[in-house]
C-alpha cells in the first residue's frame, strides 16, 4: 500500500552565523520541531511539525531563526487549491474528520470593513471627549416599555436584573480546559478591574475563581459539565449556550488529553475521557422547552440574575431570536461564523452560518418591527477586532459585544491554529504545566486591561466625531453608517445607505 505524504507547510530558516547552539529553541518548542539528534548530537529540525507559532523566533537570543512559508507547492489549479489537495491527502491518510481552531481563515466577506462611520460637520457639532462627558456605561437586561408609577404616584424604578458594563465589551466564552488556568485568571482579573464580565464557557468554574463571581457569566451548555447549584449562584448572569458561530448545529469537544487534574474535577468527569457535549440540549426541542429551562434557572437563582441565550448566526436567525425574546430570556448573544473556537470540524467552520453583521441587523429590525426590542438586550460576537467594529455593531443595533480571539492575541496568541493539540507554546490553549507557566496572569491581566482601556478611548473619540455622547444614543442609529462595495440587497439587510447618499 502506497502512502501519500505532504511537504511541510513552513520552513525553519536558521542563520548558522548567528546561532550559538544554546538549544533554547529545543526547550521552548512543545511541538518537537527542534531537537538534538542522539547519535550526532547535532541540532536538527522536523519542519513537518511546525505550526508557525513564532515561539522559537521570539525567544531566540541571537535572532538566528525565522519561519517562512514553504514555496514548494502543488501544481497551480483554479479548481483544486493546495489547501483542498492537502485536506484530501490528510483524510486519506487518517480516515478522520478534519479539525480546526481559532476562526475561519477563508476570504469570506467582512462587512465591518465595508461599513463607514459618519462624522459631524458644521450643523451638528462634534464633541471633544477630553473635555465633555461621554457615557460608555451599558445596562444589559429587560427594560420597561414605559414609565411606571407606584400607587402613591412616585416613580417605580424597579427593574429586572441587569448587567452593568463600564465599557460595552465583554470577554466571550472560553472554557477552563480549552484554555489554561492562567488564561482564565487573566480574563477574570481584567474583567474585575475593567468593570465588565468574562464568560466561563462550558467547562464549569474553578473554585479559585468564585471570588470573581460579580464579574463572571456562568454558562450552561448541552453537556452540563460542571453545572450545579453553587456554580449557578456564583456568577452575575447565566448563559444558555444553544449554538456557537464557529460550529452551528454541532456540540462541543474537549480531547481527553486536556481532561486532567483540576479540569477533570471542575467538569465533574473522569480524567483522560473526552468531554463531548451533544449538539442539542436533550431537554430543549422548542421555544416552549427553552422557556422552561430559562425559568428553571431563574428559580434556581431566586430570580436575581439575567439569563442569556447564546445562538449561532444562521439563515433564519431573526425568527429564532424573536422566539428567544419571548422565552423569558433577558439577553440574546449572537455568535457569527467567523468566531473562534478551540476545535471545530473544518467543513462546519467554513461552510455553515452567516456573518454576524447581517444577523445582527436582521434581528434588531425584526424585534423592533414586532415591538419587543426592549424585551431583550443584544450582544454580538464573532470576529470583533477593534473599537471601530464595536461602534459599528452598536450602531447596527447591538447593546454590547463579546470578544475572544482579540483577547487571546493580547495574551500572546499567534493564531497558529493548533489549539486542539494542547501544545500551545504561549501557555494559553494547554493544560501542560510547563507550558501553562509561560503565561503570567499578572502580565496577562494588565495587557487585557490596556487593550480595553485603549478601545474605550477610541469608542469615545468615534462617538465624539459623530456628535454622540452616549452608547444609548448610538444604539441602532444606522443613519451614522454608510456602505461601500455592497449590493442593494446587502445594504437593505443591513438597513444602511450607500456612501454618498
**Helix-residue proportion:** 25-40%
- How many beta-strand runs? 21
Strand arrangement, largest sheet?
9-10-11-12-15-16-18-19
CATH 2nd-level architecture of the largest domain: Alpha-Beta Barrel
How many strands, which pairing sense, and closed or not: the largest β-sheet?
8 strands, parallel, barrel
Low-confidence stretches: none
Task: Kindly provide the radius of gyration, computed on alpha-carbon positions and rounded to a whole number of angstroms.
Answer: 24 Å
Report on the structure:
By secondary structure, the chain is an alpha/beta fold. The strands form 7 sheets. Strands 9-10-11-12-15-16-18-19 form an 8-stranded parallel barrel, surrounded by 6 helices. Strands 6-20-21 form a 3-stranded mixed sheet, with no helix packed on it. Strand 20, helix 16 (488-494) and strand 21 form a beta-alpha-beta unit. The chain has helices at 24-28, 55-59, 82-94, 181-194, 229-234, 261-267, 287-300, 317-325, 346-351, 356-369, 387-395, 405-411, 433-436, 441-466, 471-474, 488-494, and strands at residues 10-14, 34-36, 43-45, 65-69, 99-100, 115-117, 138-140, 163-165, 169-173, 198-199, 216-220, 237-241, 253-254, 275-276, 307-312, 331-335, 344-345, 377-381, 400-403, 481-483, 497-498.
Amino acid at each position: 500500500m502506497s502512502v501519500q505524504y505532504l511537504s511541510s507547510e513552513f520552513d525553519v530558516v536558521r542563520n548558522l552565523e548567528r546561532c550559538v547552539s544554546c538549544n533554547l529553541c529545543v526547550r521552548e518548542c512543545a511541538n518537537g520541531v527542534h531537537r538534538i539528534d542522539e547519535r550526532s548530537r547535532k541540532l536538527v529540525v522536523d519542519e513537518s511539525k511546525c505550526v508557525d507559532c513564532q515561539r522559537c523566533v521570539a525567544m531566540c537570543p541571537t535572532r538566528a531563526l525565522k519561519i517562512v512559508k514553504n514555496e514548494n507547492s502543488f501544481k497551480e489549479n483554479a479548481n483544486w487549491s493546495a489547501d483542498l489537495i492537502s485536506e484530501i491527502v490528510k483524510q486519506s491518510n487518517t480516515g478522520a474528520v478534519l479539525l480546526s481552531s481559532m476562526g475561519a481563515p477563508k476570504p469570506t466577506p467582512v462587512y465591518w470593513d465595508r461599513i463607514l462611520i459618519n462624522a459631524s460637520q458644521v450643523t451638528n457639532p462634534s464633541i471633544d471627549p477630553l473635555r465633555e462627558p461621554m457615557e460608555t456605561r451599558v445596562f444589559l437586561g429587560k427594560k420597561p416599555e414605559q414609565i411606571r408609577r407606584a400607587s402613591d404616584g412616585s416613580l417605580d424604578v424597579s427593574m429586572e436584573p441587569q448587567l452593568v458594563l463600564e465599557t460595552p465589551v465583554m470577554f466571550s466564552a472560553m472554557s477552563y480546559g480549552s484554555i489554561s488556568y492562567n488564561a482564565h485568571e487573566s480574563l477574570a482579573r481584567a474583567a474585575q478591574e475593567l468593570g465588565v464580565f468574562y464568560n466561563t464557557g462550558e467547562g464549569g468554574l474553578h473554585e479559585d475563581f468564585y471570588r470573581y463571581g460579580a464579574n463572571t457569566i456562568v454558562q450552561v451548555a448541552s453537556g452540563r459539565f460542571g453545572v450545579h447549584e453553587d456554580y449557578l449562584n456564583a456568577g452575575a448572569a447565566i448563559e444558555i449556550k444553544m449554538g456557537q458561530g464557529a460550529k452551528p448545529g454541532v456540540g462541543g469537544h474537549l480531547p481527553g488529553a486536556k481532561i486532567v487534574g483540576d479540569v477533570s474535577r471542575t467538569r465533574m468527569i473522569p480524567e483522560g475521557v473526552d468531554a463531548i457535549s451533544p449538539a442539542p440540549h436533550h431537554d430543549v426541542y422548542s421555544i416552549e422547552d427553552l422557556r422552561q429551562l430559562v425559568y428553571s434557572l431563574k428559580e434556581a437563582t431566586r430570580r436575581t440574575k439575567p439569563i442569556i441565550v447564546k445562538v449561532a448566526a444562521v439563515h433564519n436567525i431573526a425568527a429564532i431570536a424573536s422566539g428567544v425574546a419571548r422565552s423569558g430570556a433577558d439577553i440574546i448573544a449572537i455568535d457569527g461564523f467567523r468566531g473562534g473556537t478551540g476545535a471545530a470540524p473544518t467543513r462546519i467552520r467554513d461552510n455553515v452560518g452567516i456573518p454576524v453583521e447581517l444577523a445582527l441587523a436582521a434581528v434588531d429590525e425584526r424585534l423592533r418591527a414586532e415591538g419587543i426590542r426592549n424585551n431583550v438586550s443584544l450582544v454580538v460576537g464573532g470576529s470583533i477586532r477593534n473599537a471601530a467594529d464595536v461602534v459599528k455593531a452598536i450602531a447596527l443595533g447591538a447593546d454590547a459585544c463579546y470578544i475572544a480571539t482579540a483577547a487571546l492575541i493580547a495574551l500572546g496568541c499567534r493564531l497558529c491554529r493548533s489549539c486542539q493539540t494542547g501544545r500551545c507554546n504561549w501557555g494559553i490553549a494547554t493544560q501542560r504545566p510547563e507550558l501553562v507557566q509561560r503565561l503570567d496572569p499578572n502580565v496577562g491581566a494588565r495587557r487585557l486591561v490596556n487593550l480595553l482601556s485603549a478601545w474605550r478611548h477610541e469608542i469615545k473619540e468615534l462617538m465624539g466625531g459623530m456628535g454622540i455622547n452616549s452608547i444609548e444614543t448610538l444604539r441602532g442609529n444606522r443613519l451614522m453608517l454608510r456602505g461601500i462595495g455592497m449590493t442593494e440587497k446587502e445594504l437593505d439587510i443591513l438597513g444602511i445607505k450607500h456612501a454618498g447618499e
